[in-house]
Amino acid sequence: MSLDVDGPHTVGRWLRDRAASNPTKIAIDDRGVALDYGTLAHRAEQLATRLTDAGYGAGARIATVSGNSADHVVAFFACAFLGITFIPLSWRLTPTELAALIRRSGAALVLVEDEHVALASTALRMLDAEAPAYVFLGVSGVEAQVPFSSTPCEPRAVRDADPLLVIFTSGSEAAPKGVVLTHENCFWTNMALSQTMPMLSTDVVLAMLPQYHVAAWNVQPLLAWWAGATVVLERSFQPGRVLQLISERKVTTMMGVPTQYRMLQDSAGWDRADLSSLRHMLVGGATMPVELARVWAERGIAFTQGYGLTEAGPNVLALPPADFAAHPGAVGRPYPSVDVRLVDVATALVLEGEATGELWVRGPSTFAEYLDDPDATAKARSGPWLRTGDLAHRNASGVFRIVDRLKEIYVSGGENVAPAEVERALSAHPLVKAVAVVAAPDQVWGERGVAFVVAHSSFSADELLAFARERLAAFKLPARIVFLDDLPRSTLEKFDRATLRAHASQLVAASQKEEADDRVR
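Below the sequence we write its predicted C-alpha cells.
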C-alpha cells in the first residue's frame, strides 16, 4: 500500500507494527489452521490494494455476514488500513431482519462467508434494486477480485476520527441502532483494557463470542493482536470443545458471559478438564453469580467482572479478582480514561458519595454516533455524557453495582433482546389483541422472555411461536407464552411491567421446582 497512516490511534498500525517486529509469531489459530502476523498483514495489505483499485476508501462502508474466521479478520484489517467502515452483521437473524440491517447500514459491498450464503442471498433479494453487490470472503473470493464500487472514493490516509466498526445493538425501541466506533474510540478502549488486564505476547486468547458483537473485537482479540499474542478463534460455543481447546491450545485467558461459564461447569468433561494454563478470566454481559464464581475458584481460577455497553466501546467498569470476594454481585470501578457519574432520575441532579441513580459515562472510548440517526444520538447523550439507561448503586468505597435497567432491554445468554421488537412480531398475528414481553430470571441463560398475550379468540402457544419464528431470530423468541384475559396497566398507555415481571418470575420458579421434584422422584 502506498497510503501512509495519518494519526497515532489508527488500528491498522497495530498489525503493521507487529508484523514488522515479529512476523513469524502465530496471530490466529482458526480451527487448527495457523496464520502468522506476517501472513495476516500481507493478506490484509493485498486486499486493501484491491479495494482501493476498485474504488473503495475512507468513507465507504462494507458489511459482512460471517462466523469467526481468519478470513473475516483479514477483511477487518484491510478496512482498517483504508478508513473503510467495517459492519459485521449477525448470521443469527432471519432474512427479513438481515435485509433491514443491510439497507440501514448503507453498505456499498457485502462480504459473505460461504456457510451463510443462503441467508445473505435471500436477504439481498428482498432489497431488489437497493441491494449492494456481494462477494465471498477469503483468498478465492474478495481477496482475489473485488467488484467495482458504484460510487468510487478518493483515496486518502486514514484518520483517528474515521469510523472503524459499526455494531448493531438492540435498544429500548424495536429497531436496532448502529453504534459507530472510530479508530480513536477503539484505541482508548484497548488502552484502558491493557492497563486493567495486561495482555502479554505469550498469551493465548480463546475468542468464542461471535464477531458481530463489540466484545469479539474490543474485549481481548484486538488487544491480543496489538500485543503480539495468539487468538484461537472458535465459531460456536460447545462446552466440551471449549474445555478441549483450553487444554490442547494452552489457553491462558478468555472472555465469556455467565451462561457460558455455567455450561462449562455443568459439562460432562468439567471434572477431568485440564485448566492449568488459564491465568485470567473475564466475565461480562451480566453479573457473575457468587456460587458459580465459587465453583471456578475451587479450580484455582479467578475472574475479573466487567460491565459495559456497546456505545461505551464497551468497557466501563471492572472488578478485579482481588475485590471479587469482598464485593459479590458488584461490577467494580471505572476503567482508566473512563469517567462515570450517577444522576438522579427524577431531578437530573448529579449524586455524590454513596448513592443510586442512572449511570452516565464519559471518555474517549464512548461512541461517535448512531449510524445515520442524529435524533437517537442526541437522545442518548447529555453533552459529553452517555446515558446508559442502567440504574446503578455506588457504595462508600466507590464500587458500583447494577441495580436494574431503566430501559426494558434484557440479556439472554449474552444476547440483547428488545421486548418492543418481540412484541411487534407477536402482535402481527391476526389473533393477538395485545402483548407484553418481560424478562424472567433463568438459571442457565441469565434471563428469558415471557410473553403475556391477550387473544381475540382461542389458539395455541405453539401456533404463535411458529408464527414468530419466521420473523425473529431464535434467541429472541420468548421461552414461555401466557394467555391472559387482559394485561395489567400502570396508566392507560403503559402496561404494568413490574406486575408482569413478578408474575413471570413466579411462573418460572414454580416450573423449575416441578422439574427438580420430578428429578428427585
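The CA atoms of residues 240 and 268 lie 8 Å apart.
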